[in-house]
Amino acid sequence: MSASAPSHHFIYTDWNLIETQFDPEQINHKGTVFTIGNGYLGTRGSFEEGYPRALSATLINGVYDDVPVVYTELANCPDWLPLTVRIDGENFRLDRGEVLSYQRQLDLQRGILSRKVRWRSPKGKTLDLYFERFASLADQNVLALRCQVTPLDFNGSIAVSASLNGYPENQGYNHWEEIERGDGDGTIWLHVRTRSSHVELGMAAKLLLSGTEGTFQVTSVPGYPTVETTFAVAAGQTATLDKIVTVFTSREAQTPAHVAQEKLAQLSSYSQLQSAHIGAWEEVWQHSDILIEGDTKAQLAVRYNLFQLLVSAPRHDNRVSIPAKTLSGFGYRGHIFWDTEIFILPFFIYTQPKIARNLLTYRYHTLNGARRKASYYGYKGAMFAWESAETGDEVTPRWALPNQPYAEDIRIWCRDREIHISSDIAYAIWYYWQATNDDEWMRDCGAEIILDGAVFWNSRIEWNPKQQRYEIREVIGADEYHEHVSNNAFTNRMVQWHLEKAIAVYQWLCDRFPERAAELETKLGLTAKLRDRWEDMAANLWIPYDPTTGLIEQYEGFFNLEDIDLAHYEPRTRSMQEILGIEGANKRQVLKQPDVLMLLYLMRQSEEFPYNKEILQKNWDYYAPRTDITYGSSLGPAIHGILASDLGQSDEAYKLFLQAAMVDLEDVRGNAADGIHAASAGGVWQAVVFGFGGFKLTQEGPVATPHLPSHWQRLKFKIHWRSTWYDFDLRAEASEQKAEGKIQGVIFDLDGVLTDTAEFHYRAWQRLADEEGIPFDRQANEALRGISRRESLMRIVGDRNYTEAQLEEMMERKNRYYVESIQDITPNNLLPGARELLDELRAAGIKIAIGSASKNARMVIEHLGIADKVDAIADGYSVQLSKPAPDLFLHAAELLGLEPSQCVVVEDAESGIEAGLAAGMLTVGLGPAERVGKAHVVLPSLEGVTWEDLQSQLFGTAAGSRY
Amino acid sequence: MSASAPSHHFIYTDWNLIETQFDPEQINHKGTVFTIGNGYLGTRGSFEEGYPRALSATLINGVYDDVPVVYTELANCPDWLPLTVRIDGENFRLDRGEVLSYQRQLDLQRGILSRKVRWRSPKGKTLDLYFERFASLADQNVLALRCQVTPLDFNGSIAVSASLNGYPENQGYNHWEEIERGDGDGTIWLHVRTRSSHVELGMAAKLLLSGTEGTFQVTSVPGYPTVETTFAVAAGQTATLDKIVTVFTSREAQTPAHVAQEKLAQLSSYSQLQSAHIGAWEEVWQHSDILIEGDTKAQLAVRYNLFQLLVSAPRHDNRVSIPAKTLSGFGYRGHIFWDTEIFILPFFIYTQPKIARNLLTYRYHTLNGARRKASYYGYKGAMFAWESAETGDEVTPRWALPNQPYAEDIRIWCRDREIHISSDIAYAIWYYWQATNDDEWMRDCGAEIILDGAVFWNSRIEWNPKQQRYEIREVIGADEYHEHVSNNAFTNRMVQWHLEKAIAVYQWLCDRFPERAAELETKLGLTAKLRDRWEDMAANLWIPYDPTTGLIEQYEGFFNLEDIDLAHYEPRTRSMQEILGIEGANKRQVLKQPDVLMLLYLMRQSEEFPYNKEILQKNWDYYAPRTDITYGSSLGPAIHGILASDLGQSDEAYKLFLQAAMVDLEDVRGNAADGIHAASAGGVWQAVVFGFGGFKLTQEGPVATPHLPSHWQRLKFKIHWRSTWYDFDLRAEASEQKAEGKIQGVIFDLDGVLTDTAEFHYRAWQRLADEEGIPFDRQANEALRGISRRESLMRIVGDRNYTEAQLEEMMERKNRYYVESIQDITPNNLLPGARELLDELRAAGIKIAIGSASKNARMVIEHLGIADKVDAIADGYSVQLSKPAPDLFLHAAELLGLEPSQCVVVEDAESGIEAGLAAGMLTVGLGPAERVGKAHVVLPSLEGVTWEDLQSQLFGTAAGSRY
């Protein structure tokens, strides 16, 4: 894991994920990353204007439809995004014309995705475009999208059309049939129905124009209702288009198309909808946020993972759960796995318990499916589906069918054998109950699930008379590289635990709710004989554990398998199963994901057998090196990270945590396009709270014994425990001293920080403009601050006609004039305070670098007479990507031989501060707060600033000032 | 099989299939039936305006794309049909507003599908709409569609929009990604690509308006380019819209979108394109037509089946074949079976040998696929795929996967075991060669297929040392109800035959083309040893035949299976496999389709072992009653029909022939929606030519020994044999006498035939109009001829406002006046000649019926004084469907106790003649030819007409006058 991943063009700030470049190759990875949602639906981060092969998707939880081989999938719903901007016959598209600037930003705090683009059309018209969208968290059936268009160098007519696309597809398949479509009074609507499951969906939209006047027209081809407005705008004038959308399905409304239209008619303005939405997010974050200081990347990544869980969690529906890839992609077809109960649920149990209850109630509603599955396999009780959808019937595909005439079909055995899911659900119910004391729900729902699961186990467990023990044969444990095993320690211990809890729950029911106990006795056949058998089984179910070595054997015979040294296969970019083949992995001691260690992790919460530190260490030493943690299951890294924290291996823990936290942001496994790794996201919360935070529940209540990564100054989170909120605000010991000592270098921007060449630029532009006979003055020059040479020229020439060759020549000429003029720079041009600070830094042994985008930086430094005070220069020749990308500063740190965290950046431009933050450096902003307010410290200039002051401001106030 | 199937609302004429009613329930059956095409593509008979759940499809042969489970399928291509007509905000749709009249017609002779509709919009505007379309047979990349709109009761503005629909679907799946779309100068175009196989397709269209002036506008949403024209028309004025479309794929053009646009720009007018198209069809029918006299239904059905084969046969491409469901539906996914070689090919060999060569060359191009398959299964040579697509690799699905969580997956064994396909192909090649003497092709392509097939057999056949014979074990024969059998007589004999022919072909090659022989020896490894083994195998391959009984056993052990009496299961509507289950059928002596009988049929062509009449009879008696001929395979009936002909069972033969011929027209098996049964269609040609025509190839050349169905007067067809065309014009012996004697009844229309009540109607309308103050006169009355009471009234009131209740009252009033007035009818109102003819008929013992739509018919007859001359009256109360439906006349025949073929209809209206023809009756038309020209005999009136004259005209001129 590199500290930054510039190839993804991301800048990470505390609350904002910023993309700085459009890369068509990454369109589907980014489509996942920029998913928004509100628990009712998720919408992938596709662009309003649409691109070929972009996987656009809006998935509404619970809207399943039939599909071959995998039985059922979440149906991609009609797309509410399409909005095209047409200027002079040309559609705005990033892959046509010229993108002069580009920034896409996901604001996690407010749940808003926005995009700022300056674009020049192939015919040469330049516009600023601003898009933003949100799925209202305040009103789940409301979606909104805003587009602002500002022509820069022309006056003219622009047409904007907004559509509903009734041809959504699941990898080519359109689940919907149009029932009707229509329009009226500037609104359009669509009424469709899934082909097999017959879920109806109604979607309605209106388009509102402000900032100018326009004409409206509705066109209607099958499945693609469209409303178009045409309006005139002048250069500099901004037109605002608001597309407001409502969507309902027959899952929550009898006449969804009708209700969608009615709702649309009643909605207030975009701004009001947005305010309500932002308010709802504020409330959510009050409970679910985690604050990290000292590690912007980790801060952003953690919030990002929590955000993606929050946007996929059902808030008003207890008949759905969170699919393995949330509502953000087609991977696993929207099916629900143990991922929810074991990996995701703790976050909700401890920060949004109502959502946790919804998620568990889904399992209650699918009990009959679990019973049908048990019955199909010849068992009793509730045997939960490994992959579950609407009904709870098993929907794991039986086959992986390679689409080649002579390839072998691969039987998938999870549906038959990965049976620990039933106990995983029991486990989650138990801890939900422990955390919430929600006795009512336990009585009505939870108990029945746990008890009927125990009924299943009674029919599934076998007695081995020879060994005089109970056994569970022919299973798949947590580790899916071994497909046909017996007495898997993970499964057997979880089942044993399940039986123990079933007995306890039954006893509790009898004590507290005897009527319900009697009801379930009858319904589930809970005889005294059966309960005795549970006790007997719990007592005599075999766990393959050797007390002499302290090692738990993953399953009976695992230690007899061929051993393997994974290091021999490095470097690699594929899973060990892909390398060895299914049979090859089956035969070796190689794990896809933690199995014994997973068990130890789960038992850790209450320190139940076989959990203790010594056994953990022994088993860690054995299993961790044999686990395919990089390309096996994405469920592994977070869990390994927590255990590494427990074992005091902080660096390893942090590395594993980052591997989990960046899995989607940086597409660590190459499959982020399929959707968010929800279990990994849940694991990230556990890694931070249980791992780094050392959070534990004791008899006395929740406590935390933190072991923060060395560079974290603070970790703050909330926990809900038995009706009370607990605030944990954990600070690194002696953080100030440590932090101060850390700074080894200062990187100065040049222009506006050490000197001011604005005057020289102005004179050069003025001379050029005069020669060309173009009006230009100081006021016009003001608008060029922070703007590139080409862009400055474009603004000056406006809509005058120049060929590209002429433009090139003019840029060259202006630069010549500028370079000529800076020959006149002298040490007197140093800004006040600069020389003093540089001298002081050198005296203190702090290294100094220049980080300037100017290609003339070196010459200017010479003329300023400070060349001997500077250790390194990163200039316009050093890197490809300009600020706000972190590249220039990272390059400067490298030249100084320092880590980014050892550097301070001094900057006077917003993009420079962003670049410093993205590089993971401390930042000092010179100038007004509206320009450089994102910096750690804001100062008017360097005048009178000492190194001591600076340090004190940088570290003394870090705990409070930024939030 | 009933003689007519009015539930399908079809009228059959010699060349036209006419549908008289729109039934949304039959939309997909009819979608198949009204498929048009040109060998390059097929377009299902969907409507231009589109309906929910209609399976629209345009399939281009060879454009395959990947799909799960079944590997590959013909990708449904962008739909070129969409054309909507909008009047006053309302779209023309048959399921909205009121359909006043409806007729859809497939003109087989000219390859044109047309539709005439009179429609009243929900807002009450009445229009005539006429649509027609064709896929040019003269220029395969050109498609054309015409729409004519005539407002009847309003002047106003009409908008017509024409689109290309880039969202075609194969059962929900869209194989295409849009690359680009565009428009220019009134044209629109689309450039798309298949997702996996990356076949590109370009489609361009223009919309031309004539008959009025209009404005044009192009709109463009993704995947649905649309051109719209808005124009004004006055009542009675006709606007004509021509939509001309071009389509190319990357299979035949490097830049298909570009080529499509260029081609479109060069095209001439709709009329000129249509003339070229009709000319091309004329040429095709000159060789491929079959003329049948005496059986209009059979005539139409035979031509219909041949038409569907002709529109799916590749004319300019030898890398494709004819899929089992042609290019008309999604059944079998466009895969190619033995259906082509064994069932379809004879029609082409003997009437379109160039097409036959294309079809066989497809197998040559897929030889490497067949070799890959052999190699996969561990054999040598060419093992052809049971289901074949682009490459010839095996694409039979391995599994039938029921989409229910706990249903069992069904293994499909045909890919592994139905290996007779390789010899079926050899068989077809041999007979193509025999018929054409195409030595060049045999040298270059055919020989290699036959020889490499024999190489395969050498590796597949096993020697049984115990029995001292060669055997072929573990196969599926022609009968697919038995999936795992050994020494299947059909397979073994076909393989034996194949080896015999391989030896002969090899010898011929050595003699005639020694260089090619040497080349193939090397390439295929044809050693002398191998050739010896072929001889040995051919001599000693076991055929389970018992000369003492004359019975061939279907396979080793078949006679030991449990026997079955199919009669016990009647009546049924499902196959025996569905009733018994797969295993149940496997265990019993029940056949899906002929197997031993199929073998006897195939060996019949050259009377090779084991074919002779006696053996045929014995095996027929055994196997025919055990064959599920109704709901087993659709491949069975035609073959059984031919054998029944051979055995002199004419009635049975005709019944079986009709079962095959009507399989799609009347949806006999309930699965016509999946596409045309191509093998059955090919079987129909064989049943007519080989069965009824008794056509055979002898050493002296082709001969025919006909056994026509008893009511056929003539059968005429052409055969191409070794560069010469042979005309067969077979007439039933003594057909005149037989036919004359047959007529037992005459059905007279009343009004215009026996009397003329037009004057009475006119007076009633006049009186009503006068009372209402509406202008009306004799001229206006003329326009009401043949129009219903309600429609007449609507025309009279025009756009005056009346409530439905008022209209009802007015109709009632007019009828009252009319009924009052016909009280004045006397015998003097009989038309000249009527009474004389009636008397003569009675004297001759001919029964007389009245077939009149009037509800007053009975009263009029009373007043005319002919009630005693009439045996039966079918009037306006008798049936639901009015003329041109045959119902009224069929009812009259029934009242007379006669078969339709025993009746003559006398009519003065076009719709009446059509009704008579549809009823399968002889028809006499009174009036001008432009009105009643379709009748068998046309006369000015009954004046002076005698029964003798009539008979002489009806039968004396039948042989020539009608064609």
TrEMBL record, chains A, B:
Gene Ontology molecular function, alphabetical: beta-phosphoglucomutase activity; carbohydrate binding; glycosyltransferase activity; hydrolase activity, hydrolyzing O-glycosyl compounds; magnesium ion binding
Family: Belongs to the HAD-like hydrolase superfamily. CbbY/CbbZ/Gph/YieH family.
Segments forming domain Glycoside hydrolase family 65 central catalytic: 303-686
Positions annotated as active site in the UniProt record: 749 (nucleophile), 751 (proton donor/acceptor)
One Gene Ontology biological process: carbohydrate metabolic process
Cofactor annotation comment: Binds 2 magnesium ions per subunit.
Protein name: Beta-phosphoglucomutase
Keyword RNA-binding (UniProt): no
Entry keyword Magnesium: yes
Glycoside hydrolase family 65 C-terminal domain: residues covered: 705-734
Lineage: Bacteria, Bacillati, Cyanobacteriota, Cyanophyceae, Pleurocapsales
Positions annotated to bind substrate: 749-751, 765, 784-789, 792, 814, 852-856, 883
Span of domain Glycoside hydrolase family 65 N-terminal: 18-251
PANTHER family documented for this protein: GLYCOSYL HYDROLASE-RELATED (PTHR11051), PROTEIN-GLUCOSYLGALACTOSYLHYDROXYLYSINE GLUCOSIDASE (PTHR11051:SF8)
NCBIfam families for the chain: bPGM (TIGR01990), HAD-SF-IA-v3 (TIGR01509), PGMB-YQAB-SF (TIGR02009)
Keywords: Magnesium, Metal-binding
Cofactor(s) in the UniProt record: Mg(2+)
Residues under site feature: Important for catalytic activity and assists the phosphoryl transfer reaction to Asp8 by balancing charge and orienting the reacting groups: 852, 883
Pfam hit, one: Hydrolase
Annotated binding of Mg(2+), by residue: 749, 751, 907-908
Gene3D superfamilies (alphabetical): 1.50.10.10, Glycoside hydrolase, family 65, N-terminal domain, HAD superfamily/HAD-like, Maltose phosphorylase, domain 3, Putative phosphatase, domain 2
